[in-house]
Every structure is written in structure tokens, then in C-alpha cells.
Amino acid sequence: MKINWFNSIYAGIAGTLLFDIVGFGITGQWWDIPGLLGVKLGLGLTGGLAAHYGNGVAIAIIYAALAPSLFGPSWFRALSFITVQTVMGVWLFMLPLLGAGIAGFDMNPWMPLITLTRHFAYAIPLILLISVSISPKETKPLRVLESQTV
After folding, report:
1. I need a surface site. Which of 38, 48, 93, 143 has the fewest CB within 10 A?
2. CB atoms within 10 A of CB 6
3. pTM for the whole structure
């Protein structure tokens, strides 16, 4: 399977925008993550935005490459991928690196739920725009062995 680059890039940008909209709805702050990235990287808000949206596109491309290897319907593939990415990349790497502790508990006890909710919103364009072709082998029902006698 080949990656549909246009859909992957579009899904990454749209997903990151949804991530930001849901984040604004939860926290009341617009572009909190790009602002934090800009400060930590010393690049200002513009650099933080580029890093934030670039990361969103990169994750969508990685998902597009891995999705055919995952199991289940498209929605399950995207949500399971994003859950693993959130736990491994955000809860166990990024948040501790930023001094927020594992899963962000040192910052806010609701941080794990907030980050997972935002990432689930990000996954919506992955579900809608990145198609996963299922092989005929996966769609055939299991057959009862006809040659067996009772």
C-alpha cells in the first residue's frame, strides 16, 4: 500500500487544528502547546506553531504508514494508534521532560484525560481521510470444516 501524501498531510493539519480547538474548549487557552514549545525551543510562537503543526503532520504520516499493519476497523486502528502515541510520547516522554511528571499528574490531576481527549479529537481526520484497505483474507468469515463428521 502506498501512502496518500495529500490526505496524510491534510489529516495532520486538520487533526492538529481539532486538537487545538478542543484544547481551547477545555483550558480556555488558544495555542497553549505551540506557546510552550516556542518558549522551550527558544523560537517564539511562530516557531512553536511550526513545530506543533509539523509534529501533527509527521504523526499522521506515521499512522498512514502503519495503519495497514494494525487490526480492526479504521476508527479502531486510529484510536488505538493515538492512544499508544499519547501514552508513550506524551505521558511517558514529553510531560515528564517538561517537568509535569508522568502523564502530567504534577501539573494537574486531570491532565491524562485532557491529553487523551485532545488526541482523540486529533484522530478524527485520521479516521476520515486515511483509508486502510483491508485484505480479502481479513473479510472472509471462518468456515466450518466440511470434511469432518461427527
Report:
1. 143
2. 9
3. 0.85
